[in-house]
Amino acid sequence: MRKLSASRGLTTVRGKHILRNAVPRKDCVLPKEETRMRNGRLLRVVASLTFVFLAAPLFSQTTSSPTNIQTIVLANFTEEEDIQWSVSGSHFIASQLDFPRVGYFPVGPDALYLVGPERERSSLGINAAFNRRGFNYLELTPVETNEDGDEVESALPIPGRASHIDVWVWGSNYDMYVDVHVRDFRGIVHVLRMGDLNFAGWRNLRTQIPSRIPQSQVTLPRFQPLELVRIVVWTRPSTAVNNFYVYFDEIRVMTDLYEAPFDGSDLANPGFVEDLWTNGNNE
Which of 13, 37, 127, 262 sits at 20 to 30 Å (Cα–Cα) from 115? Predict the structure, then answer.
């Protein structure tokens, strides 16, 4: 049973007084001193968190493993190199017109030859045509001449633990793209997309080598370098393929050559071990 009290704003419910439309008392407001203390604690917490986030990269840098990052040229595309390039086309290559045509020419990107020591320009040029549009391709395979005078495939070893690979390519705005094929120590070939050729002139195409591709192992020797197996130029169905040119110059990698030293590290060098067991066996 509810009774209304004579006092304004006071309701009695089952013997209990409930204040309606109550106005907060002034003594419920926090004193200024306590407010300042709470604000000070909040600022200290924010400052601590900010320091942690800003300092984390610094601590991670000081505890990171040592590296020896270098850029190494795999091929300069010159006639003087031991490694040469065999170029072949897919099924619809216009072989009846003697395509593809391949040669070395004294041309190259200004960005490459106008920096550093003066040297003669040289690039690998390809003139090709296909009998029909589609996903046609040209394969550039590194080869060397054996003792019998025959050309045999010779993949380019990539030293260290490579992180990036790049190559200079001259494009003429055709709807084409370039892949590189690398092989790991297990014999698995991985295809890496370098980029499109829908541009005019020289351009440096660069791609990252994914960490999922193994380049080392726990047992010695730790380094298990990749090999560059081939470069592939693909045409898309939208582009004309009756007669086009493409040029290549200087392919290189960015790689980490650091190897933690240990007593007897020379015995983990395959070349040293081969020579040791060939010439150094006393038996």
Answer: 127
